[in-house]
Amino acid sequence: MKKVAVILSGCGFYDGSEIQESVLSLLAIEQAGASWYCFAPDEEQFHVINHHAGEESGDTRNALQEAARICRGDIAPISTLNPDDFDALLLPGGFGVAKNLSDFANTGVSMSIQEDVLRVCKAFASAEKPAGYICISPILIPKVYGPGAKGTIGTDPETAAAFNAMGGEHVNCPVDDFVLDQSRRLLSTPAYMLATSVSEAASGINKLVDKLVDMA
Q1: Catalytic residue flag (residue 135)
Q2: Cα–Cα dist 179/50, whole Å
Q3: Which residue among 38, 71, 135, 173 is the active-site one?
């Protein structure tokens, strides 16, 4: 059975992983006949948002402990992730990608990626193992794959401009499709960058995951 490593960034789209995208991804992996293993940074989140009020709560939370809520506790620190043990990589979205896996939310095109996240993503790229990036997570692609790497965050002009400014080649994409950079074995889909419902988010995620597992 093919094994897919999934990197999460917390729990909740304002400050961690987008829950619906994450669960849809895990379901799609299983339905494609593969198995998933979740990882997250064992670090304090950038901040915590009250998802009901849409405001900072002032609390402090650990990204790994919060991400464990999504996968029923079946998760490990990303520092323990050995890319040699897996056939493919998948990163759901949520603003935790831009706040906990990287600092894109604060620094924009000058962003840096969390050390273990960068190590893992680059290792999959170097080994030419397929990797899928969902929603806002494709913003990491130019820093991981270098100049010319193709990806999509949908159609948002500002985010697309940042993608291109970092050396990537942004491709506009509808919610029900994905972009494939064949030479890099790299896939991306907009999901909730464009989706207005769970079923819309699923339409692109399911196609991406099917192709990801097929390529693994």
Answers
A1: yes
A2: 33
A3: 135
